Amino acid sequence: MTLARSPLAPDAFPDLPVIDGVRFATVAAGVRYEGRTDVMLAELAAGTAIAGVFTRSATRSANVLDCQAKLGQDASGPAAIIVNSGNSNAFTGKHGDGSVAAICDAVTDHLGTPNTRVFTSSTGVIGERLPHDKITGKLGDLTAALHPEGISDAALAIMTTDTFPKGATTRCDIDGQTVTLAGIAKGSGMIAPDMATMLVYIFTDAVITQSDLQGLLSKHTDTTFNAITVDSDTSTSDTLLLAATGASGVDVTGNAGFEAALHNIMRDLAHQVVRDGEGATKFVEVTVTGAATDADAKTVALSIANSPLVKTAIAGEDPNWGRIVMAVGKSGAKADRDLLSIRFGDVLVAENGWVADNYTEAAGAAQMKPQDIAINVDLGIGDGTATVWTCDLTKTYIEINADYRS
Amino acid sequence: MTLARSPLAPDAFPDLPVIDGVRFATVAAGVRYEGRTDVMLAELAAGTAIAGVFTRSATRSANVLDCQAKLGQDASGPAAIIVNSGNSNAFTGKHGDGSVAAICDAVTDHLGTPNTRVFTSSTGVIGERLPHDKITGKLGDLTAALHPEGISDAALAIMTTDTFPKGATTRCDIDGQTVTLAGIAKGSGMIAPDMATMLVYIFTDAVITQSDLQGLLSKHTDTTFNAITVDSDTSTSDTLLLAATGASGVDVTGNAGFEAALHNIMRDLAHQVVRDGEGATKFVEVTVTGAATDADAKTVALSIANSPLVKTAIAGEDPNWGRIVMAVGKSGAKADRDLLSIRFGDVLVAENGWVADNYTEAAGAAQMKPQDIAINVDLGIGDGTATVWTCDLTKTYIEINADYRS
Q: What domains appear along chain B, each with residue ranges and CATH number?
């Protein structure tokens, strides 16, 4: 099926800068799709620090297991990231392990990278054997095509049911010197906390150790990629890699500006994934305050964001706050009917266990009309807060997933 | 909107027997709906034992709170159950408590039942004040109309988005004497474990104490009403009441035949609720075996049964077992990719971490064609087992819930 570009897509793909120390190449290997690129290779300069966060699925793919085993090992040599779309290489048994090994060996042969510094991702259909020969057979072409400006093409090569490529960039100035970050992502369905069918690659020329980089990445995943949900389903392949080449010569260790920039690019890419949620017509920010703990706040926020009844009401532009009450109640978090208040945007809808005195259905309905919607719930119990992002649930989601073997 | 009768509905409503000691009446009070009955009253003979199970939602309705407070108190007098559809009286603040009190008082006035023996339920829209005067104003008519054969009419009066009334009956013979059970239920959306927008009333002429009756009801709820899910959303109003009038004179204390009959009628009604799942075209039984514990097995079974990607694949008759693997992996239960096996019906689909040797897509697809589908997962780890029931997720679910204020 041909999917229309999401109505929530950004106007244009951003102009992504070169990150010194990274070169990209893409190729059409015909893994599953015809007439498009489906493999991207990123070559990383010697000494690049690489951090990663992965799906916690008990049935995660061979690629994810391989990446996890390699993370944090010796970082002195050059490194590479190679990604294919069309086939996830998940639940492919021993064959899957073999495919990963074959791809890593081929990259090592062509780029001279140590095998332990080659990271692979695969995304697409689960349970079908990855035709890795199609990928390894293209490594000569890929190696020859490596160039510093290829990141935008890489964003296209990793797409599956995505309706637009996802990219973001930011900079930060540290003592008059500039550190640059640029990243790409894919993902539109099977998106839920604990990562999702989401692949994200972020590159920076900052100087930082692997362990410090890992600390920052893990810290900010909770409030970015692990705070989005499209359909509550969690992929077997989720991979987020952050590579710091050090080519800027600027040490960012302990720098708050770099940390803020990293958070922003992670949140930007996470939001783009939600904006490409399968069938989405609304981008929804759910903020919960006043919970007993931050964890309770996130539980309530996700209960709202994952509720099919809430999501279908939003699709219908129905200010159905009763369903918010339902989702709060079922979450398992501490809540009290009479302390709870609900706002759509800044419109107070419910408080003191009932609809607010001045609330009108028209005022609520007006808040449901824009593409971007805010649901704010205060539990009135403590200081716990959380924000998550989701999209609505429409007939198009059903169409895509009832008819498409993803 | 007018909803078509579910394709999964039984051919006909069963012929429900009279339960000695119970009389029913229904009336069109105009709470919300026009041109149909929307209140049912059941009068129960003095001494009737009443057991109950309710939603665990933190935002449960005033009616539920009132029922819970009354359960297990003095059972010597007559009792009554009164139910309205169209308005759930949930999240209606202090007004909600007042409505329950007014309805209970009116029943006490007309039937002479102690106030602590009057149980109320309300189902329908959340957050709108219940016009209880419309109900109390009809109590004279209701009282005059009470008759033993009214249970089928009661099943109609409690419907909301249901497309068919739900009823079941069974008997058991104990030492040559017969004990009879008959029950009715409503529910089609907002159905998930921890009960659902589900109201269930089961009546029997058995002799049994309230505490023994409660023990049986609680025990069998886990494997019946708390083992079904339509959309993972849990209602604020779920109520299951079981009333034993004792009119048969047959003591069922500790009798395995009665317990089996009770389990069967509970499961029968639970299945009917799933068969009326909003937009459902498939009835799906998910059985998990070989889990570390029974609790783990239920976690995995519900993860599969609640997965939008699994449910849309079933709607599309797509034997997409990769999504089953995903749902197992995300559940949080202990699982091992290489020990897991998956069957559609009796067709072995996957084992040893990959697709089964003899599996063909045609064989899997054939298992997806019938209205009733079985998904069987063995985790290969321990002895834990669980079975849950669900339905598929279709565009009609979206239509109903994006356009209907329920």
A: 22-275 (3.60.70.12), 283-403 (3.10.20.340)
